[in-house]
User: Which sequence fits this backbone?
């Protein structure tokens, strides 16, 4: 079932859902006055925080942060501003005005749909299956709940994500359980897992490198967009731009 968006006035008070504390810190540097919540990369956290943002007085909702690549042609650092989010056999259209403000029309930005998944997807083969089934460019664990909350609250929403782990790479198993509910890392669990299975270290190094590339690409994109009056007005909440 396709859920279409309606026309809304230009927004100035975004509520932003991220997965991790580091993503919250990054977006806070650009959106200093926005309501920002971290899901901790869990299903319950994403659902709870999406609903909380929808009820906090925001006039639009934004899903922001890292994403897993599904399209094997997209390297780490690819910016994704999808036209729609797919989850649970539903498709929600992202708001056209928000997408334009965020920079969906900029060169190199990926506009293909984004897939929501309730669990961390570790294996490259699983990513390949999801891509074949959905034709989505990337995957995250927050955007479906944000889209659902936006529809229920009558708010426009959009997604701004950057690909971290590419579709062709599997992640070490520890990445599925090392995140804490507040969006941080369970350092003790991480160290114990690495001591038991040191073969995961190379995978974590690759993931860290890709995360660094993704962060750098997102910061560059945001700083470039901040030079555009519509984006600057949206980010600062200043109607005069």
Assistant:
């Amino acid at each position: 079932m396709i859920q279409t968006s309606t026309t809304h006035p230009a927004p100035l008070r975004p509520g932003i859902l991220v997965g991790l504390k580091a993503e919250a810190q990054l977006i806070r540097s650009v959106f200093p006055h926005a309501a920002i919540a971290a899901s901790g990369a869990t299903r319950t956290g994403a659902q709870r925080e999406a609903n909380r943002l929808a009820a906090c007085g925001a006039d639009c909702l934004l899903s922001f942060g890292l994403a897993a690549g599904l399209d094997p042609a997209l390297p780490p650092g690819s910016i994704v501003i999808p036209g729609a989010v797919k989850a649970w056999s539903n498709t929600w259209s992202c708001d056209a005005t928000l997408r334009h403000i965020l920079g969906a029309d900029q060169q190199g930005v990926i506009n293909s749909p984004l897939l929501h998944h309730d669990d961390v997807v570790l294996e490259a083969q699983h990513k390949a299956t999801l891509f074949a089934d959905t034709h989505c460019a990337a995957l995250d664990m927050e955007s479906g709940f944000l889209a659902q909350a936006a529809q229920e609250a009558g708010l426009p929403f959009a997604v701004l994500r950057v690909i971290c782990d590419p579709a062709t790479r599997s992640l070490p198993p520890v990445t599925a359980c090392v995140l804490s509910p507040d969006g941080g890392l369970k350092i003790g669990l991480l160290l114990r897992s690495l001591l038991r299975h040191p073969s995961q270290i190379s995978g974590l190094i690759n993931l860290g490198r890709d995360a660094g590339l993704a962060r750098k690409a997102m910061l560059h994109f945001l700083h470039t967009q901040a030079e555009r009056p519509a984006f600057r007005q949206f980010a600062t909440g200043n109607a005069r731009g």
The longest strand covers residues 60-69.
